[in-house]
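Morning F.,

Quick status update on the modeling queue. The single chain you submitted on Monday has been processed. Sequence for confirmation:
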Amino acid sequence: MKKLNYSLFASLLMFTFASASVFAQSSPTPTSQAIKAKININTATVSELTALPGVGEKKAQAIVDYRKKNGGFTTLNDLTKVKGIGEKMLGKFKTQVTI
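Structure tokens below.
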């Protein structure tokens, strides 16, 4: 009888943990991309710009320098006017920036 009780208890315990993990996995969690706000290329600092894929400190500084010299960007495609940023690179982070 004790073996049956232990067996029943163990089965119940495994079912409880299995159910808990299924429910935990089924609840939607926002992705880090959804949580992050877009980076405004007309106000972002060098350190904020380096968070973009493919943008290191030098390219981030070039963006800030271009912005200071030319009065800011009017479209996202204006970023291609910055030395070292082409269409391909812009495509890597275009959805993560705004004006």
